[in-house]
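SAMPLE LOG
Freezer: B-3
Tube label: C17
Construct: single chain, 211 aa
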Amino acid sequence: MFKTKDCEENQMKKSCLFGTLSAAIIIFLSTATSAALIDNGGGLIYDDVLEITWSQPSTQRTWDEANTWASGLMLGGVSGWRLPYISVLSEAGPLPSSTPPIDCRNDGGPDCEDNELGYMYVKNLGSNPVSSLFPSLQPDGSYWSGTAESLDNAWFLSFSTGESLFGSKTSIGYSWAVHAGNVSPVPIPAAVWLFGSGLIGLISMARRKKA
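STRUCTURE (predicted):
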């Protein structure tokens, strides 16, 4: 009787199938655990897939005002904040409507990572823009991206539908800032703690003397 090799042997099929399923489960779990929003504290949330840190959503502004607001932020001890891109490849643009950004609702693969706002909506929020990490997020709001469509228009994401759209830069939309890399709140120096403790001690002594 002839014997086939590897998984073609009847006795090997079950073990090979088990090994394949085990490997698939391990890959799935490792992918699932690595894709997450990490709360750094101080309102700073790190996306370990896009490798950007999100601030807390802010109020409504025109596109130019939103860009000025973001670029002027100093959070976690760093400047250089910006509006999230609707296309990382195009950055500030222009990204004309003839070549629209990737719709993450229809593309759940790696290409979706090019659309930072779309990735947040679909992947991180599960198309349900309500999160304890972002208590000020407006579920029905439209959030400006940092990517222009033309000289007069800019792209934004509708958080009521997850659709990438564009509108006049003079229109009013919500603003949200991101920063490249993992940004954490600046810890209070030990010297400040010591100074504060000493000051509290002096106040206590002064009160005792008055008593």
